[in-house]
From TrEMBL:
InterPro entries: Aldolase_TIM, PRAI_dom, RibuloseP-bd_barrel, TrpF_fam
Lineage: Bacteria, Pseudomonadati, Pseudomonadota, Betaproteobacteria, Nitrosomonadales
Any Gene Ontology biological process: L-tryptophan biosynthetic process
UniProt name for this protein: N-(5'-phosphoribosyl)anthranilate isomerase
Pathway recorded for this protein: Amino-acid biosynthesis; L-tryptophan biosynthesis; L-tryptophan from chorismate: step 3/5
E.C. no: 5.3.1.24
Length: 208
C-alpha cells in the first residue's frame, strides 16, 4: 500500500513546490502564532493557490477560537483541519471541513479510548509528548506504545527524518507519515535534498 506523506510547517512557495515535486500528498500550514513555523492565512493562501489537484492543504491549529479557524480556513483555502491542543470533539467537528486530531503519545495515555473519543475525525496524528510544546519537537516517541487495534486511521509523526524513516515504517507500518523539522535547514525553511532523501526512504518501503 502506498504511504501518504504530509510535509508540515510550510512557509515558502519554493518549499511547497519542492514537496509536491517529490510526491507529498499534503502540505501543512501552522496557524499558531507562537510557532517558529507560523504563517499568516493570507500568505498560506498565496501558496495554496499554486498547488496541483489532489494535494491537500492542511491548517494546523492549537486551541484556537472558532472565528480564527473559520477566517483562516477561508483565507488559506484549506482542505482539512488539524488540531494540536485540547480541543474537544464537538469543537473540532463544528466546521465544514474534515479534521485530524493530534495526540502527544506518552506512557499511561489510553490511545484506544482517545480514538473512541475522537471517532468523528479522519484519524489521529501520533506525535511526541514534550512538556509545554504541542508539536514540532524533532524527537521520536516509543513506537511500541502504538496499539495494534486502533479504531481510527493514524499518522506517524515526531522526530522523523531520512535516517530513521525506514526503521520507523518497518516497525510501525503506518498508513501515513507527517514530517516537519526532519526536512529543514532552519525552522520553517525546508531543504530540497532532505525532502528528496526522506521521500526516497518512504518509497523504498513501499517496494518491499
Amino acid at each position: 500500500m502506498r504511504i501518504r506523506v504530509k510535509i508540515c510547517g510550510i512557509t515558502r512557495l519554493e518549499d511547497a513546490m519542492a514537496a509536491v515535486d517529490h510526491g507529498a500528498d499534503a502540505l501543512g500550514f501552522v496557524f499558531w502564532s507562537q510557532s517558529e513555523r507560523y504563517i499568516s492565512p493570507e500568505d498560506a493562501g498565496q501558496i495554496v493557490r499554486y498547488l496541483p489537484p489532489f494535494v491537500q492543504a492542511v491548517g494546523v491549529f492549537v486551541n484556537p477560537d472558532k472565528p480564527w479557524v473559520k477566517m483562516a480556513s477561508a483565507a488559506a483555502g484549506l482542505d482539512m483541519l488539524q488540531f494540536h491542543g485540547d480541543e474537544t470533539p464537538d469543537f473540532c467537528g463544528q466546521f465544514s471541513l474534515p479534521y485530524i486530531k493530534a495526540v502527544r503519545v506518552r506512557r499511561g495515555l489510553d490511545l484506544l479510548q482517545y480514538a473512541q473519543h475522537y471517532e468523528g475525525s479522519k484519524g489521529l496524528l501520533l506525535d511526541t509528548y514534550t512538556k509545554g510544546k504541542p508539536g514540532g519537537t524533532g524527537h521520536t516517541f516509543d513506537w511500541k506504545l502504538i496499539p495494534s487495534e486502533l479504531s481510527l486511521p493514524w499518522i506517524l509523526s515526531g522526530g522523523l527524518n531520512s535516517e530513521n524513516i525506514v526503521d520507523a515504517i518497518q516497525q510501525t507500518h503506518p498508513l501515513a507519515i507527517d514530517v516537519s523539522s526532519g526536512v529543514e535547514i532552519d525552522s520553517g525553511i525546508k531543504d530540497v535534498n532532505k525532502i528528496s532523501a526522506f521521500m526516497e526512504g518512504v518509497r523504498s518501503c513501499e517496494d518491499v
